[in-house]
């Protein structure tokens, strides 16, 4: 996907997903990160800062800053957001 320049949307919560994000950010395609929690106090990993500052990475959340940990409910809402965004981007 990275080599093909395919835009990627996901939560990137689990260790495996975080590793995928790290690899994707080495490419040039857009990446949208949608965590199942608030993002106001989210720590941006060092390897994500350049893509974020370059406008190639977007961090988007439905949740207030008080939602500090993902739950089953926020994960379901997060999944709905990811699907809706993917449908808009994919046509």
What would you note in describing this structure?
The structure is a single chain. With 91 residues, this protein is mainly α. It has one domain (8-90). Helices cover 41% and strands 10% of the residues. The chain contains 3 helices and 3 strands; from the N terminus they run βαβαβα. The chain has helices spanning 15-24, 46-53, 72-90, and strands at 8-10, 31-33, 57-59. The chain has a 3-stranded parallel beta sheet. The chain starts with 7 loop residues before the first strand and ends with a helix. The model has no long low-confidence stretch (mean pLDDT 89).
Descriptors for this entry?
single chain; 91 residues; mainly alpha; three-stranded parallel sheet; 3 helices; globular
Brief rundown of the structure:
The chain has about 90 residues and is mainly α.
Number of strands: 3
- Along the chain, the helix and strand elements come as EHEHEH
Alpha-carbon distance between the termini? Answer: 18 Å
Shape: globular
* Overall pLDDT metric: 89
Low-confidence stretches: none
Outline the biggest β-sheet. 3 strands, parallel
Taking Cα atoms only, what radius of gyration do you get, to the nearest Å? 13 Å
Question: Helix coverage percent of residues?
Answer: 40-55%
Structural class: mainly alpha
Q: Estimate the strand proportion.
A: 5-15%
Number of domains: 1
Number of H/I helices: 3
Q: What is the topology, as strand order, of the major beta sheet?
A: 1-2-3
Helix/strand layout:
Layout: E1 8-10, H1 15-24, E2 31-33, H2 46-53, E3 57-59, H3 72-90
Parallel strand pairs: 1-2, 2-3
